[in-house]
Amino acid sequence: VRIAHVGIVVRDLDAAIQTYRLLLDREPKVEDVPGQGMLEAVFEFGQSRLELMQPTTPDSPVGRFLARRGEGLHHVAIEVEDIEIALARAKKMGLLLVDEKPRRGSGGSRIAFVHPKGMNGVLLELTQQE
Ligand code: CO
User: Fold this and answer.
1) Cβ(125)–Cβ(61) under 8 Å?
2) CA 121 to CA 98: how far, in whole Å?
3) Spacing, Cα 92 to ligand 1 middle (Å)
4) Ligand 1 centroid to 7 CA: how many Å?
5) Which is nearest to 39 in space by CA: 24, 23, 19, 17?
6) Cβ distance 9 to 71 under 8 Å?
7) Contact indicator for 120, 127 with CB cutoff of 8 Å
8) What is the whole-number distance in angstroms between the Cα of residue 13 and the centre of ligand 1?
9) Mind listing the pLDDT tens digit for each residue in 11-59?
10) Cα dist. 129→22, 70, 98, 109, 121 in Å?
11) Torsion angle (degrees, nearest 10) of CA 64, 70, 33, 122
12) Residue 71's closest CA among 56, 57, 52?
């Protein structure tokens, strides 16, 4: 349907916010996401978002990513019409799935991640809005 959002891991959220808001000339929404051990700054562009993610603890998924790979692109989220169909297709293709079944994302969405291994090094998030 569209690119829903792009997630970028940053070491210093305040510094990253300064850079991005100066360049993009807009204010982000900053949220604490304790369940995932991270702080997030969200910039909206029409129907799409840019998410800057800073770990609040080193043993969170984003914290481990930062330790292993450093700052940079974490995942690309693509909205699909039917996540069950998209997941079934991915399975049929033999792609490695992080989530065998959709789980709850933010704002009532359903999400599932496809492992970077089969996706040319990029973690792909499939998302379906309610
Ligand atoms: Co995401």
Assistant:
1) no
2) 14
3) 23
4) 6
5) 17
6) yes
7) no
8) 17
9) 999 999 999 999 999 999 999 988 889 999 999 999 999 999 999 999 9
10) 31, 31, 19, 5, 25
11) -90
12) 52
